[in-house]
Amino acid sequence: MQPLSFSVNAVTEVAVLTTTLTTTLVTAASEYANKINLIRCSNITDNDATVTIDVEKGGTHKMIANEITVPANSSVDIIDKNSSFYLEETDLIRGGASAADTIDCVISYDKIAD
């Protein structure tokens, strides 16, 4: 029996959200799965804003967070180590905000290849 062979690379992505749910935050490449460890949304303005995050799986979009309020000059964790999940190959995560250039998102994940 041969030992299992795979690789894991830690990745951090940063994105500024637009007002529509079209900003792609991360896409799992073919032959990879991504373990999503953290999605942190930071409001960089003096006014409250909302954020919406969804996942596309096989062409179907499902909400992870819908219009979550991020208070002015604050951060909200949408996903953390206690609610991590796997993004399978070619699936993606998108985000949008109530106002353009108000929300910065940081996504930390493990990219796993077999």
What does this entry look like structurally?
Strands 1, 3, 6, 7 and 9 form a five-stranded antiparallel sheet that branches. The mean pLDDT is 92. The protein has a single domain (9-113), classed as Jelly Rolls (Sandwich). It is elongated. It has 114 residues and is mainly beta. The protein is built from no helices and nine strands.
In the CATH classification, which architecture applies?
Answer: Sandwich
Uncertain runs = none
Query: Which percent range fits the helix content?
Result: under 10%
Number of domains: 1
Largest sheet: 5 strands, antiparallel
What keywords describe this structure?
114 residues; mainly beta; Jelly Rolls; 5-stranded antiparallel β-sheet; 4-stranded antiparallel β-sheet; 9 strands; 63% strand; elongated
